[in-house]
Specification:
This is Integrase zinc-binding domain-containing protein. Helix content is 33%, strand content 16%. By secondary structure, the protein is of the alpha+beta class. It starts with a strand and ends in a 12-residue tail after the last helix.
Length: 123
Amino acid sequence: MFGIETDISVKALTMPTGDSWTSNEIQKTQLEDPDIRPILKTKLNSTDLPYFQEIARESPATKRYWALWVSLHLKDSVLNRKWESNEGSSYRRQLILPKSRFQEVLRQTRDNTSGGHFGVMKT
């Protein structure tokens, strides 16, 4: 009846210097991302799914986020996707990562002592 929340906090994404990203920093970079901005701004102002006509002129990526509307949630004003287990008994938050942070995250996960990857497709 009650789901178990596994919180994958953005604080887990740390930079080599040991600095962690704050919610404000992540929200700022999400608002700077042209694909995420329209969805985040709408979520900040309403829980209602906008009509397709309202986002029709946006990028294909924005339209994909729009299609995921019911699984997108705000935590500390940061856009996350709710990723549920198949049986629905637990879920995780998946940060909607701005493009400007892709290389940073890949570098950190790849170069980390527990990192490495098994090729482009699996990564």
